[in-house]
Amino acid sequence: MCTYITETLSVAGSAKGPTGWIRVTDASVYFDHPVHATADHTLNVDLRRPEDGPSARVGVELCPESARALAETILRVLDGRST
Fold first, then answer.
1. DSSP state, 79?
2. HSE-up of 74 (CA within 13 Å, CB side)?
3. What is the rounded distance in angstroms from the CA atom of residue 49 to the CA atom of residue 68?
4. For residue 83, what is the DSSP state?
5. What is the pTM of this model?
6. Which of 15, 29, 39, 66 has its CA at a distance of 20 to 30 angstroms from the CA of residue 1?
7. Which residues contact 34 (CB under 8 A, 6 or more apart)?
8. CA gap 31, 61 in Å, rounded
9. Percentage with pLDDT > 70 across the chain
10. Going by C-beta distance under 8 Å and a sequence separation of 6 or more, which residues neighbour residue 60?
11. Looking at residues 65-81, what average pLDDT do you find?
12. C-alpha Rg value of the chain to the nearest Å
């Protein structure tokens, strides 16, 4: 079910979009109905640079299981551990 919780944070990095690499300065994370994925609800992550307009955005829609696995893997890699 949708939580209507949206977290927005500042980030520093780059993302590859349809026209090439863009610098990203913001991220939004929320759990809602996907636009494209086939799941009923997904964890959605938008990486963007608002000052460059709506096309400066890369979006990801992950099923809950994939989102958790990705989050755990990111933390493991940052901590210098492997499976």
1. T
2. 6
3. 25
4. -
5. 0.86
6. 15
7. 41, 42, 44, 61
8. 9
9. 98
10. 44, 45, 46, 47
11. 95
12. 14
